[in-house]
Amino acid sequence: MKSPTEIAQRKGYYREENLDVRKVVIRTNLHVAALIAGELDYSTVSGIIARASIQGLPVKGVMGWFDRPLHILIAKPGFKRLTDFKGKRVGVSTIGSAPHIILREALAQAGMHPDRDVTTLALGGSGERLAALIAGTVDATPLDVAYVEKAEKLGLVPIIYFGDVVHTRLGGFGVSLDKIRKNPTQISRVIRATLKGVRFIRDNKAETLALMRDYLSVSADGAAKVYDFSMRSLNVDGGVAKTTMDSEIRLAKEQLKLSEEIPEEKIMDWRFLKEVLGQK
Predict the structure, then answer these.
(1) Are 36 and 79 members of one domain?
(2) N or C: which end of the chain has fewer CB within 10 A?
């Protein structure tokens, strides 16, 4: 759920910064290459940007907004807890994606072996995963909280809110090092406009709920649920909580099989956010 950017766009905050913003949807695994090639100016898939920067690719994170994942594990009826999924099939978007990483972490915390105890299938976006769950291809899948209302109407059941057990980011901006060198003022303007969107969510609940109902196509109750989960995760300063960053670095090291210490500066360049916050 990309609500800070959606709200910043709908409220005209990007226009105020003389920015003509166009949102494009591309596959998660293409974000890094698109940034480096200059085909994408900003990515909001923070986890994959962080792992790419750890691997030495010329990208960095410059802003965050949700300190916890806004995903819920949705399952067919009959399941009640994570340990019920031993020997079962769980769908994720792609291997190494945010839903995959948070699922693995939650399973490990429940005392299970993520690779041996559960079969993980890469099925695509939330819509495709929901369809696979209904069809019986998988027994459960992590879904963005915006899909929960639809899932429950289809008779599916929520098992666990990942934000209660997993500390990883959802959203935030990643850019290429080339963008940092060539257009630093634009980065500051994008962050300033988006930060207004972040704070609008906090300060204007009624209007935010109305906007959410529209762009998420959910009921008033559905929007209220999404809002409540969002507020539990929202970082109103555009940063990343230390517990979240530490957890993200640990998980990336595990995934990439690295042993050396990874400093936060390898992943994030905070200069632009600090500049914007200094103007407040």
Answers:
(1) no
(2) C
Nearest Cα to 201, choosing from 180, 176, 171, 181? 171
Q: What is the pTM of this model?
A: 0.87
Q: How many domains does the chain have?
A: 2
Q: What is the pLDDT of residue 255?
A: 81
Same domain, 173 and 251: yes
* Tally of residues, the chain: 280
Task: Indicate the range of 23-27, 81-85, 267-271 predicted with least confidence.
Answer: 23-27
What is the rounded distance in angstroms from the CA atom of residue 254 to the CA atom of residue 53?
15
Quick one: which H or E segment has residue 255? Answer: helix 242-256
**Domain end among 164, 191, 221:** 164
Q: How far is CA 147 from the centre of its chain?
A: 14
CATH code: domain of residue 206: 3.40.190.10
The residue written with tokens 């639809």 in the block is 150
- Evaluated on CA atoms 273, 275, 276, 280, the torsion sign reads positive
Contact partners, residue 227, CB within 8 Å, separation at least 6: 201, 205, 208, 209, 212
Name the domain boundary from 164, 196, 230.
Answer: 164
Q: Domain of 261? A: 3-68+169-278
Q: What is the CA radius of gyration of the chain?
A: 18
The confidence band for 279, taking pLDDT boundaries of 50, 70 and 90, is: low
Written as six digits, the tokens of 88 are 């079962």
